[in-house]
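User: Let's play a game. I give you a shape written as tokens, and you guess the letters that built it. Ready? Here's round one.
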């Protein structure tokens, strides 16, 4: 497909995002560093995965379905650099396992940019 085709489409749309997110968050939930944080704040995992799929849909050029202030949801969690690194390491791993190489790297770059923004806001206490 042409590069001008949205990443969302090149990934395989919402169904492909759902598979990626299901496997990624299974890893997150079991992770020693970030698992306890996520498990303490998310009571309904199926609903959370749907909300996160809405977020990634818009972030990848698909339908903009996510409503809310994503950065604000992360501010009270007390996230530190080690938490961001753990999240990104798991994200990179799952993207590279589940997606074609070019799309995986593009999705990883988006996540890294989001991580930088969250780090900045967390450091500011915004």
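Assistant: Ready! My guess for every position:
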């Amino acid at each position: 497909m042409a590069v001008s085709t949205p990443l969302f489409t090149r990934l395989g749309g919402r169904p492909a995002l759902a598979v990626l997110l299901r496997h990624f968050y299974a890893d997150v939930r079991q992770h020693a560093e970030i698992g306890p944080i996520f498990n303490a704040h998310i009571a309904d995992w199926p609903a959370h995965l749907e909300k996160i799929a809405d977020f990634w849909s818009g972030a990848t050029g698909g339908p903009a379905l996510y409503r809310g202030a994503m950065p604000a949801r992360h501010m009270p969690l007390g996230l530190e650099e080690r938490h961001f690194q753990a999240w990104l390491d798991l994200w990179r791993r799952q993207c590279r396992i589940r997606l074609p190489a070019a799309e995986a790297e593009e999705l990883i770059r988006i996540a890294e940019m989001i991580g930088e923004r969250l780090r900045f806001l967390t450091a500011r206490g915004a």
